[in-house]
Structure formats: structure tokens, C-alpha cells
Design a protein that fits this description.
The chain is of the alpha+beta class. Helices cover 29% and strands 30% of the residues. The chain has one domain: 3-Layer(aba) Sandwich (Aminopeptidase), CATH 3.40.630.30. It has an eight-stranded mixed sheet, sandwiched between helices.
Length: 196
């Protein structure tokens, strides 16, 4: 209900922001972009594409997935947020998740789904804001992320944000006739220095 009121007033809840980008709760209108993203975009080539190719492209199913992920799950701190321009144009998302065995560690992800906004530092800024927010709003001890050896942009983002390279699952999957490594990065609360 609160999100409907936000939609009507065009005042989404801003979770955290900088001069370049905001992380905010989803608006009902964002579903149009989400449906388009599930059917196109360079992001699909880098975010575990072997999983993405099995996502439903059916508009009804995509709308349902959006509603379940973004409109109903308003935990504190948030587990997902929309990345948007200062004018609230949606660009993608950030998320966090936990593995049940490791409750003091969260894992994060990011996707910039608007191709025109790639390679402009938005992903780095959005992920920095997300990590700042998660450490500020919780007592979590560790934040990690994983990416694949064919994703140099995500590797650079992790390195720019001073995540430590913690290892690799070498040749974990064969994709497009090549063996691919999954790379692990992490940062501990006492290592995170906030704004750069």
C-alpha cells in the first residue's frame, strides 16, 4: 500500500543517493523497464547467462516476478533496490542474499540493464552506495560478491571498491566452448572505509 501512495505522488522512497545515482524502492511503473530488460540488454551476456537464458520472457510471468521481488519484499535493510538516475529513470538493480549456513555474511549483486549507461562509473557508484548502506544499517560482518572470468567490468568494480580477491572456482562451467572461472571477492566491516 505504501508503494502505491508513493507511485501516486511520484515520490519513491530513496534508500541512499549520491550526485550521480540513487538507490530507491521500486515503483509500479518500473515494471515496464523490467519487462524490457528481461528480453534485451548487454547485461544478459555477463550475469550468469546460462541461467538467464532460462528465465521466462512471458510478460505476465515477468510482471509477477517483479512484483514478488520488488513490491512485496521491503525488509530492513532492503534486500533489493532499483538503481536510478537523479530523475528516477530506472537503470537496473542491486541485491543482497544470504546463505543459511553463514548468517553473518551477505552476498551482493548488481546489474546495469540500460546499455547507454554502461562504462560510465554508475555501477561502481551504485555498488559503493549499496555496501555503505548495508554496513550502516546492519551488524553484518562480511559482504562478498562473485563474478565470472569473462566479466572484466565487474572485476574492475570489485577492485576499485577495495574488495579483496579471495579465490576462484577454476573452470567451474563450460560456456560458449570455453571453461569459465567463478571469482570470489569480499570485504570485512573493519576493512570498509566508506566514501572514497
Amino acid at each position: 500500500m505504501a508503494l502505491q501512495a508513493q507511485e501516486e505522488n511520484s515520490e519513491p522512497l530513496i534508500i541512499v543517493s549520491s550526485n550521480a545515482v540513487i538507490l530507491r524502492d521500486a515503483l509500479a511503473a518500473d515494471v515496464k523497464s523490467y519487462v524490457r530488460w528481461m528480453n534485451q540488454g548487454e547485461w544478459q551476456q555477463y550475469d550468469a547467462p546460462w541461467e538467464i537464458e532460462y528465465l521466462s520472457r512471458d510478460e505476465h510471468e515477468v510482471r509477477k516476478m517483479f512484483s514478488e521481488r520488488y513490491m512485496r519484499n521491503l525488509s530492513s535493510p532492503r534486500s533489493r533496490a532499483i538503481i536510478a538516475t537523479r530523475e528516477h529513470k530506472p537503470l537496473g538493480w542491486v541485491n543482497r542474499y544470504v546463505e543459511e549456513r553463514f548468517p553473518d555474511a551477505w552476498f551482493i549483486g548488481i546489474d546495469i540493464c540500460e546499455d547507454d549507461y554502461l562504462n560510465k562509473g554508475i555501477g561502481t557508484e551504485a555498488l559503493k552506495l549499496w555496501v555503505d548502506y548495508l554496513f550502516a544499517k546492519s551488524n553484518i560482518h562480511r559482504i562478498g560478491l562473485a563474478t565470472y572470468s569473462f566479466n572484466p567490468r565487474m572485476i574492475r568494480v570489485a577492485e576499485k571498491l577495495r574488495f579483496r580477491h579471495e579465490g576462484a572456482d577454476r573452470e567451474i562451467i563450460r560456456w560458449q566452448d570455453e571453461w569459465v572461472d567463478r571469482l570470489h571477492f569480499g570485504v570485512l566491516r573493519n576493512e570498509w572505509r566508506g566514501p572514497m
